[in-house]
Amino acid sequence: MGTTSRRNEVDTFLSSSAPDSLNNLTQSRAIEAYNGNEGDNIINHLDIAEGLKDALVRYGFKLDSLLIMQPNNLAEILGIDEYVAKLIISAVHDIKNKASTGSNAQHRIMMVDDEQDIARLFTIALQDNGFVVDVFNDPLSALSNYKAGLYDLLLLDIRMPTMNGFELYQKIRDIDDRAEVCFITAYEEFLHDFKRLFPVLEEVDCFVTKPIEMHNLVKIVKSKVDCN
């Protein structure tokens, strides 16, 4: 499918999913996503997610038709991975239904994940719920920039190059023995090592598997920081 055809699909999708005013706001984002090479058929899903976010936050439009849309259909229309489509739908759901953010504004989160797209989507959901989020895609950089007492919670991917999340947390504990953590991974086989290395940590809120819907991630983070 050519670039123009893909863009028309996106424009049609946005028009059918939201009021005209929202379509006008997000349409420019869809067009901007095609400013690359003519042969590129994949829309930048982050541009669309942020376009929807900006419009929702500013004008409070309803997106009921988007919220009931199946991830596989959204993925086909936007030319993205189905998992990312699910994250976008979940993120829009959180933006629409987010609670008051005042109680979270003082909480600071360190997120470390080598998958930049996933880290950014997680960040959007947390920031829209009032959290301050510092994102690192390199665990060594996260370690060198860590400051004791600055963060209320560490969200750490486990499988990363140069240093895995377990190793990173252990080194951070040498700096700050009060650091709270939640590991996030797509690999359930790490659960055995988690239990062996950190027997005092609760699996239910310290070991989270991907994919995870954004409202569930926000719920876990809120629970962790509110208990501290």
What is the strand tally?
5
Helix-strand makeup class: alpha/beta
At CATH level 3, the topology of the largest domain is Rossmann fold
Number of alpha- plus pi-helical segments: 12
Shape descriptor: globular
Specify the biggest β-sheet. Answer: 5 strands, parallel
Can you describe what's shown?
The protein is α/β, with parallel strands linked by helices and 228 residues long. The protein folds into 2 domains: 3-97, no CATH class; 103-227, Response regulator (Rossmann fold). It has helices spanning 3-17, 20-32, 45-59, 64-67, 71-78, 82-97, 116-127, 139-145, 165-175, 191-197, 203-206, 214-227; strands spanning 108-112, 132-136, 153-157, 181-185, 207-209. A 5-stranded parallel β-sheet has the order 2-1-3-4-5, sandwiched between helices. α3 (45-59) packs parallel to α6. Mean pLDDT is 74; it is low at 1-45.
